[in-house]
C-alpha cells in the first residue's frame, strides 16, 4: 500500500508540475505570442545543458544510494552530505562554464541570464533524498504550494509581449523556492554528522556513470528544440515545446511509477530478493502498459482539435506534432519500467547507459535529414524513432533475465482496446461540433469504451485491481 500511496503522491505532483504551466500557457501563448514562447523554449533548451552538468546523474544515483542505506540513519546522513557536496561543486563548475559560454554567445543575453536562475536552483534540489526514503508527501505538498503561487504570479505580472524576461524569471524563481522549501526538514530527518568523516569523492565515478545516460537522454530531449531553433525558427522550438508539454502531462501518470519503484526495488535488491524484484517488474510493466495504451491513442485522437483550441490561433502545427509524439508515451512507459525500475536498481548501469546512448545516436543521425525535410514534424519523428530504439535495446538486454511472455501477457488486449477507442474518438473529433464540452464528451466516451473492452477481454489489470480491493477489505476487517 505504501508504494501505491507514493505513486499517487508522485503522480499528483508530476501532474501539478505540468498542469500549472499548461494552465498558464493557454494565457501566456496568447500574451507572448509564438515568437515569445519560442524564445523561452530555445533559451531554456540551452541552459538545460549546463543544468545537466550540475545535476551529474545525482537524481537516480542519490535516490538509489539512500534507499540502500536508509535502515542506518548515520550511514544515510553521511551518504546524503557526501552526495550533496559533489552536487554543490558541480553546480559551481556548471555556472562558471555558463559564464564562459556567454562571452561567446551574445544573442538574447537578458533571456539567458534569467534562465541561469534555473541553474542555481539545481544546487538546492534534494528531492532525490526524499525519494530514496520513500517520503513523497513532503516534496509533493511543499512544491505544490510553490507551483500554485507561481501560477498566480504569472497571471498578475505577465501582461504584454515584452514580458518574456519576466516570465522566465517567474518560472525559474518558483523552481528555486520549491527546492529551498525542502531544506528545513533535513534537520529533523537526519542526525548530526562529523564533517571530518565525510569523503565525497568515492561517489564521483558512480555518478559519472549515470551522468553519461543523462547526457544521452538530454540530447533527444533538448537537442531537437535547439536544432529547430537554429535550422528552422525559434517559433518552431516553441511549437515543439508546447506539444511536448501536453504529451509530458500524460507521461507523468506513467513514469511516476519509475520514481516510486526505484527505491522500493533497490531496497529489495539490497536484501537479495531477486525473485521479488522480477515479480514486481512484471506487475509494474503490465500496469504501465494498461495506462500507456489508452493515453497514447487518446491524445492522438483529439490532438488536431485540442492544440489550436487550447493555445489559440497560430498554434495549429502543434496538433499534428502531438499526434506524432503520442507514440512516445508507450515507448517511454516501457523503457522507464525496464530501465529505471529494473536495470538501475540491479546496478546494471552500463546496459542502461548503452540503451539511451543508442537513442541519442539515432536522434542525431535522423535530426538533420528529417528536420530539413519536414521541419517540426521531422523532429517529432526523430524523437519517436529514438525512443523506439531505446526500448528495443533494453528489451534485448534483459532477454535472459526476464520472460517476454510474462512482460507482454496482456499487451495485445490493451492494444486492441486502445485502437478501437481511438477509431471511435477520432471520428467524433473530426465530425462533431468543435467545442470544449464535446471534447470532454469524447474523452469520457473513450474512457468508457476502453474500460468496457478491457473488462470483456479480461486483461491482467482487472485481476490485479480485484486482488487489491480484496486485500484492502481484509485489512479493514
Automatic annotation (TrEMBL):
Keyword Transmembrane helix recorded: yes
Membrane topology designation: Multi-pass membrane protein
UniProtKB keywords: Cell membrane, Membrane, Transmembrane, Transmembrane helix
UniProt cross-references to Pfam families, sorted A to Z: Polysacc_synt (PF01943)
Spans through the membrane: 7-29, 41-62, 83-105, 164-183, 287-307, 327-344, 356-374, 380-402, 414-430, 436-457
Chief place where the protein resides: membrane
InterPro entries according to UniProt: Poly_Biosynth_Transport, Polysacc_synth
Protein localization: Cell membrane
Listed name of the protein: Uncharacterized protein
Lineage per the UniProt record: Bacteria, Bacillati, Bacillota, Bacilli, Lactobacillales
Amino acid at each position: 500500500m505504501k508504494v501505491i500511496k507514493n505513486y499517487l503522491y508522485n503522480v499528483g505532483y508530476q501532474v501539478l508540475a505540468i498542469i500549472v504551466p499548461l494552465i498558464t500557457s493557454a494565457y501566456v501563448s496568447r500574451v507572448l505570442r509564438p515568437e515569445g514562447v519560442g524564445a523561452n523554449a530555445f533559451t531554456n533548451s540551452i541552459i538545460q545543458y549546463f543544468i545537466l552538468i550540475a545535476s551529474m546523474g545525482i537524481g537516480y544515483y542519490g535516490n538509489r544510494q539512500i534507499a540502500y542505506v536508509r535502515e542506518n540513519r548515520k550511514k544515510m546522513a553521511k551518504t546524503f552530505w557526501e552526495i550533496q557536496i559533489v552536487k554543490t561543486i558541480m553546480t559551481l563548475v556548471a555556472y562558471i562554464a555558463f559564464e564562459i559560454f556567454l562571452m561567446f554567445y551574445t544573442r538574447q543575453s537578458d533571456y539567458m541570464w534569467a534562465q541561469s536562475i534555473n541553474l542555481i536552483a539545481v544546487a538546492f534540489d534534494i528531492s532525490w533524498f526524499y525519494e530514496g526514503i520513500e517520503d513523497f508527501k513532503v516534496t509533493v505538498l511543499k512544491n505544490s504550494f510553490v507551483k500554485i503561487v507561481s501560477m498566480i504570479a504569472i497571471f498578475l505580472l505577465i501582461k504584454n509581449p515584452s514580458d518574456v524576461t519576466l516570465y522566465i524569471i517567474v518560472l525559474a524563481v518558483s523552481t528555486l523556492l520549491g527546492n529551498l522549501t525542502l531544506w528545513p526538514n533535513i534537520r529533523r530527518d537526519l542526525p548530526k554528522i562529523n564533517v571530518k568523516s565525510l569523503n565525497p569523492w568515492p561517489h564521483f565515478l558512480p555518478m559519472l556513470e549515470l551522468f553519461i545516460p543523462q547526457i544521452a537522454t538530454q540530447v533527444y530531449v533538448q537537442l531537437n528544440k535547439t536544432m529547430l531553433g537554429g535550422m528552422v525558427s525559434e517559433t518552431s522550438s516553441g511549437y515543439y515545446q508546447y506539444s511536448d508539454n501536453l504529451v509530458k502531462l500524460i507521461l507523468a501518470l506513467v513514469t511516476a511509477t519509475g520514481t516510486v519503484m526505484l527505491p522500493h526495488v533497490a531496497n529489495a535488491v539490497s536484501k537479495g530478493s531477486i525473485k521479488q524484484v522480477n515479480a514486481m517488474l512484471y506487475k509494474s510493466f503490465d500496469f504501465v502498459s494498461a495506462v500507456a495504451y489508452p493515453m497514447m491513442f487518446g491524445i492522438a485522437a483529439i490532438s488536431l482539435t485540442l492544440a489550436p483550441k487550447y493555445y489559440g490561433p497560430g498554434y495549429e502545427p502543434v496538433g499534428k506534432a502531438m499526434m506524432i509524439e503520442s507514440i512516445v508515451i508507450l515507448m517511454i512507459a516501457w523503457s522507464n519500467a525496464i530501465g529505471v525500475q529494473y536495470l538501475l536498481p540491479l546496478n546494471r548501469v552500463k546496459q542502461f547507459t548503452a540503451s539511451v546512448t543508442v537513442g541519442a545516436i539515432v536522434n542525431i543521425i535522423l535530426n538533420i535529414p528529417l528536420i530539413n525535410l519536414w521541419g517540426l514534424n521531422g523532429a517529432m519523428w526523430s524523437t519517436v524513432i529514438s525512443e523506439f530504439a531505446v526500448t528495443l535495446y533494453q528489451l534485448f538486454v534483459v532477454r535472459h533475465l526476464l520472460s517476454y511472455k510474462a512482460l507482454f501477457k496482456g499487451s495485445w488486449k490493451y492494444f486492441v482496446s486502445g485502437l478501437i477507442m481511438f477509431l471511435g474518438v477520432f471520428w467524433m473529433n473530426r465530425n462533431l461540433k468543435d467545442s470544449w464540452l464535446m471534447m470532454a464528451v469524447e474523452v469520457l466516451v473513450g474512457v468508457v469504451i476502453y474500460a468496457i473492452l478491457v473488462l470483456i477481454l479480461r486483461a491482467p489489470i482487472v485481476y490485479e485491481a480485484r486482488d487489491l480491493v480484496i486485500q484492502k477489505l481484509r485489512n479493514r476487517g
